[in-house]
Amino acid sequence: MNRNATAFLKxxxxxxxxxxxxxxxxxxxxxxxxxxVVDGKKILMLCSNNYLNLSNHxxxxxxxxxxxxxxxxxxxxxxxxxGTMKIHVDVEKKLAKFKHTEAAxxxxxxxxxxxxxxxxxxxxxxxxxSDELNHGSIIDGVxxxxxxxxxxxxxxxxxxxxxxxxxxxKYKRILIITDGVFSMDGDIAPMDKIxxxxxxxxxxxxxDDAHGEGVIGPDGRGIGAHFGIxxxxxxxxxTFSKAYGVxxxxxxxxxxxxxxxxxxxxxxxxxxxxxxxxxxxxxxAIEVLETEPQHVQNLWNNTKYFKKELNSMGxxxxxxxxxITPVMVxxxxxxxxxxxxxxxxxxxxxPIVFPxxxxxxxxxxxxxxxxxxxxxxxxxxxxxxKLGKKLEII
Length: 394
Ligand SMILES: *Cc1c(COP(=O)(O)O)cnc(C)c1O
Prior knowledge:
By secondary structure, this protein is of the alpha/beta class. The protein contains 15 helices and 13 strands. It has helices spanning about 5-20, 60-70, 80-85, 85-100, 110-120, 135-145, 155-170, 190-200, 225, 255-265, 265-270, 275-290, 295-315, 330-345, 375-390, and strands at about 35-40, 40-45, 105, 125-130, 150, 175-180, 205-210, 235-240, 250-255, 325-330, 345-350, 350, 360-365. Strands 3-9-8-7-6-4-5 form a seven-stranded mixed sheet, sandwiched between helices. A three-stranded mixed sheet has the order 1-2-11. Helix 8 links the parallel strand 6 and strand 7 (about 205-210). The mean pLDDT is about 95. Pyridoxal-5'-phosphate (PLP) binds next to helix 5.
């Protein structure tokens, strides 16, 4: 057949542009710090996942440099062949100790952990049960599995109970998967209740705590610590790319989980391991969490102050219980306008619009940060108030 094999590349991109759904990338010319340079402009950063401002912490930078000097720039192989360096194992041991679990396993990214592990935990004759608002990387992990699927209404334990009762009779293995902290709304999954229900039916529990690691629980030890159920969640998955300020997926749980996961996950077996610099910074990040509690404290103090002030101005910050602070706008066009006007005033905060959230639930998603000062927060609040009034949001 005579066809233009690649015409769709331009056509589909143009379609996104026409609908104003294409990503317009802003370029950082500095670190991802509270005061950053973006597109040549000095701005206050309110949309980085670098919650604890660790990405530019001197101990992490030193950890990366020292590791490069000792081991070099790359690891040379996948973990399973010749790419497991002592520094990788050091991170895993330190992490397990920090999270009070038997073991912990590193993946290249959080996405690679979900895509590699989920399809191994449930297959033919099994079922995976998901919260309706789970992250896209979980959804892709589930798609790679041959298991049947069920979805329950967001955090609805009555419905989860019903789905479990049905599933109990029909399937061999049952896997419940949920985000720990939901990335769009900043609310927390009722993990204590989910574990209790799972135990009644002999189901496995898997939590993606990407936005909880380093943020919730004492010292930022994550959702298990937050609910006082450390070691009771079968799979605690997380990432070093957010509060830890580096990059890398992690899975914490039992020795059995560790052995199973690294022998079976294709993303782990078939993709190169972290450069030593990454692990050097990861080690330092865990050490900082263990010894400098002020970062987590500052993050929460800033979060409480910022939300309280926004609410008293009349802004709706939704269901958030964490530093993820949605400033509800409603209309997508208005949310984009608010974000652009904020940028002109020196504030970088991202609009989250349809199809990422429901059509009438567009918002600005402010990510709080431990490195913001009271002066920074007051500057941001003043701009939010001014523009909120101008756009008739408050
Ligand atoms: C960011 C995120 C991931 C992906 O983590 P990476 O390590 O950046 O690949 C997975 N799940 C959730 C809920 C996330 O927010």
